[in-house]
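lol ok so funny story. i was supposed to be doing the assay writeup but got distracted and ended up predicting the structure for this chain instead. priorities right. anyway since i did it might as well share w the group, maybe its usefull for someone
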Amino acid sequence: MNTQKSHHKSPNLFVISGPSGVGKDTILNLMKKNYPSNHYVVTVTTREKRNNEVNGKDYFFVTNQKFQEMIDSDAFLEWANVYNNKYGVPKEQVNQALSENKNVIIKADIQGAKTIKEIMDGTKTIFINPPDISKLAEHLSSRMSESKESFTLRMETALQEIQSRNEFDYVVNNIEGKLEQTLEKINDIIANH
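and the output, tada:
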């Protein structure tokens, strides 16, 4: 006799990743509005706050010293140094949401996604694929307040990251002008686990 509960699924951990400029923040902001029952982890970072960002909502903006204290106290599930800024996934947020039976959505870089998948059993990784390289370059250059060298580095890194998409559980193409379609695909993945 099968005594497993078929109607009640346990919560899962999903990591959304992809190259810089692919639209991860836009996707996540819309997901928060459309699918509020998930828990969206707010990453801790040492980078400067952009004009449109809110501390505690988009990221927790901290000093390098505070970030180091969090590393020392084992507060992160995973952390990385990306383009000279540190980003960390707070362990407490993830554990709290899972204990409340909520699906947890984490935005992480490519390496972070792999690390989290190794640490947390059952993690599903979702790679957001750019519509095409020229669109990605356009997105990166439109928000760049940096040098040409920095832009070149980000593009080279993005191209390398796109090569690793086959290592992810799911690849979702973020087609220009079809954001709702991208969201639906991601939500289908989450709903079916």
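The two ends are 23 Å apart (CA to CA). The chain has one domain: 13-183.
back to the writeup now i swear
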